[in-house]
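Go through this one:
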Amino acid sequence: MNVSVFPNTGKEEVYLFFKELVPALQEAGFHFFLPGNVRAFFEERHIYLKSEYYRSLEWLGTHTEVGFSIGGDGSFLQAAREMAPYPILLVGIHMGELGFLNAISPANMKERFQEIREGRYNVEKRVFLSAFIRHEDGSETKLPDALNDIVIGHNTIGRMARLRLWINDRFFQQYPADGLVISTPTGSTSYALSCGGPILDSRAESMLIVPICPHMIQNFSMVLPMDDLVRIQLPDREKKLHISLDGNGEYKICRNECLCVRCVHKEIRFIRFADQDFFSTISSRLFPKIIAT
């Protein structure tokens, strides 16, 4: 079985772990490949592999069956964005902090690899957020799809933003707030949760809207059907706001422009194991850390 490995090149522990990972992959009968853009990082740390191990993202998406992200949730999100157009299975090996998205730990990876080899796993499809900016002249700029969330606000901490929200072309509310989070169910355990939003099962087909520190009495979140179209515009007093997609990439929306967002399905699928339940994962990884602090 051909598999791809997406390491977080910014984590030094990933390079040490790679020396354990390679024999475990080989023992499971996996032929592994890496994105070509990680080669320089590996060779800087004296990890040398033959050229045949490094391939383009398109090759990985069309010639490997399973992709392993190595790192934390951010690593998983990046791999998911890169592989979203391809019918690959993705699973994360957890080397981060909370790790809501990762299903494998270094301690149990050999057992998990065997389960994958034998097809003993469940497959989940998740919704992504698809967004574009419509400019004043009517042209549109497509933004990268997001698995977790899209956040709109100022680039300066503590500066209040004003955002006007339409749902299915009907005006709903103008928010004076630090910003607004538009989240998938996958992202409901991320920034949206920190802002007081509800936890949604990651398999749900919904969109979540959560204001960030709103300057108003009515502070509530909304859960919308995935087919709804959300549109954000700025009132006259706002010149521009910044847009973050899954915490990466900086875009901006200016006055007389609008940000349009809706949910979409992608080809990529995610591995979960039979002994893993979404809400038990939340309990084990989130609540003890809250109690400990």
